[in-house]
Amino acid sequence: MEENKNNGRDEIFSEKVKAGKRTYFFDVKSTRANDFYVTITESKKRFNKDNEGFTYEKHKIFLYKEDFNKFMDALNNTINHVKNELMPGVDFASFEHNHHENHEGKEVVVEAGKPSADNELRWD
User: Fold this and answer.
1) CA 77 and chain centroid, separation
2) Which of 34, 40, 81, 107 is the most buried (most CB within 10 A)?
3) Whole-structure pTM over 0.85, yes or no?
4) Phi and psi angles of residue 86, each rounded to the nearest 5 degrees, phi first
5) What pLDDT is stored for residue 50 in this prediction?
6) Tens of pLDDT along 37-75?
7) How far apart are the two ends of the chain, measured CA to CA in Å?
8) How far apart are CA 31 and CA 104, in angstroms?
């Protein structure tokens, strides 16, 4: 009998963000008990030293529902500190890209909006 490769952890939703030499994946997965969690994966393409192709170096974070709010608070506080305290003169909007891939792998155009007054990410 062939064993299920994902061990009952079905992928429900996925977003991919290309950022230079790195790609970030934001995935919602389910457990066997029908609970949900988020994985954030950073993937970097690395060329082999022996010039025989390349591999992907991956780093993954597992984020569970009980930690969503704490994670978002810490992330918002950290990013806002860099933007407002350490680099207040940088126009971060100039770094925005208008394309990303949705959970179906299709490229979509995103309107580059103006930063909100409170500059916070939301789970909405």
Assistant:
1) 17
2) 40
3) no
4) -95, -30
5) 75
6) 999 999 998 888 777 788 889 999 999 999 999 999 999
7) 42
8) 21
Binning pLDDT at 50, 70 and 90, where does residue 79 land?
A: very high
Whether the CB-CB separation of 98 and 109 falls below 8 Å is answered with yes
What string of DSSP letters covers 27-53? EEEE-TTS-EEEEEEEEEEEE-TTSS-
The two structure tokens encoding residue 73: 């608070």
Contacts of 14 (CB under 8 A, 6+ apart): 25, 26, 27, 28, 103
Q: Count of residues for the chain?
A: 124
Burial of 23 (0-12, 13-18, 19+ CB in 10 A): middle
